[in-house]
Amino acid sequence: MKNVAIFASGSGTNAENIVRYFSKSETIKVAVVLSNNRNVGVHARVNKLGVPSFVFSREEFADGAPVLAKLAEYDTDLIVLAGFMNKISDPLLNAYPGKIINIHPALLPSFPGLHGQGQAVAYGVKFSGCTVHFVDEGTDSGPIILQKVVPVLDDDTEDTLADRILVQEHIALPEALKLWAEGKLQINGRKVKVLA
Ligand code: GAR
């Protein structure tokens, strides 16, 4: 059994979706959720499903030590960033090399950073989507595991596009985690090979 820790800063629909998806899994358990914000929806969403959540300050995430202690307490094998709006600090990256996965609401390398959906609407692209990738020291720049594509419609706003992308996020993230747990993701430099 692999223990997953989710980092989340917001509503937590991805976190709830992952907890539900793997609730009967024999390979993945969502052990704990960590957040930088006490006043966000993710806590209630996962607590009601029996998953504990904890809050650390921006400084504690940057320092790493208190966060690493909590991750060790839950025997964490993999960190999943599901709407986590803090940068991952070096101590965390060094402690979990190749073991941090992020979901971003755009087709990377286009539109990294904040408001990926709004950036896509403003640019006028015809397709956008979501990207699941391993985390490196850059912003949304690590090796890509998988992507899902959605059309961008003429009258889309940031919010309407975000809703369409979120449906695909809820498919993409469990798919990537399942592949990881089955040992099917092989990182070769920038490329991730999905083994048969
Ligand atoms: C998701 O759309 C996720 O891709 C995005 O935040 C949202 C969180 O939704 N993440 C980023 O923008 C990271 N740069 P949720 O709280 O309902 O899962």
Detailed description of the structure:
By secondary structure, the protein is of the alpha/beta class. It contains seven helices and nine strands. The protein has a seven-stranded mixed sheet. The protein has a two-stranded antiparallel ribbon with strand order 8-9. Strand 4 (78-81), helix 5 (90-95) and strand 5 (100-104) form a beta-alpha-beta unit. Helix 1 (13-21) runs parallel beside helix 7 and helix 6 (116-123) packs across helix 7 (158-181). It starts with a strand and ends with a strand. The protein binds glycinamide ribonucleotide (GAR). Residues 8, 10-14, 82-83, 103-105, 116, 166, 169 line the site of glycinamide ribonucleotide.
List the helices and strands and how they pair.
Layout: E1 2-7, H1 13-21, E2 28-35, H2 42-47, E3 53-55, H3 58-63, H4 65-73, E4 78-81, H5 90-95, E5 100-104, H6 116-123, E6 127-134, E7 144-151, H7 158-181, E8 185-188, E9 191-194
Parallel strand pairs: 1-2, 1-4, 2-3, 4-5
Antiparallel strand pairs: 5-6, 6-7, 8-9
